[in-house]
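Entry 14. Structure prediction run on the chain below.
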Amino acid sequence: MRNLSSALFLGATICLILLGGSRAAPAAQLWVSCKPVEAAAFPERIHVKCETPIDDRFWYFAASTKDPRVAARALSVIEAAQVGEKLVHILFDPTDQSGTTFGCLAADCRQLLAVVMAETPLEPPSRCTFDNDRRGCPGYCSRHDDQSCPGYCARHPDDRGCPDYCARNAEDRTCPDFCRRHPRDPDCPREDPCDRNPHLPQCRR
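Output returned:
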């Protein structure tokens, strides 16, 4: 048991497996933390499943077994982390779907480029890091024009969702003051006289 603990400690400090790339990561690549709950080996790939999906999408990270020695080393790091209840830090490119060629599904898996066993988690990346075109991200309003974007109501003053719409469109039946101004309109509810005069004989029950 002592030997296993020593091996895990050593692995956590020095184990870095790179698969098909250099250690320096291009801008599109990200390091993320994963708590491994499954390590698997298939003829065409090895993969790790994380306890929590990255960006609510990526449960799996996989590497091709085209180079069996590199794949075996990556799998050994993943298995050691799982047995030792450690984390793995994974390098991947969220836009790269080339892993589909060896069984890494585009919907929930990405190619594993590097793996490190570690004690502490990394700071989670922003959701905008994965897709800058999401609502609330800096790039969203440059491609979309909706109420969440600055200046929308100035550009679309007749949009019913804008705050000053009813001030400019007082005759719109959907505005709350319409029936106050038009109490006899057939679409407006008629006031029950007994609501104001419950003491009248005809209102007594």
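The chain has seven helices and eight strands.
Filed with the rest of this week's runs.
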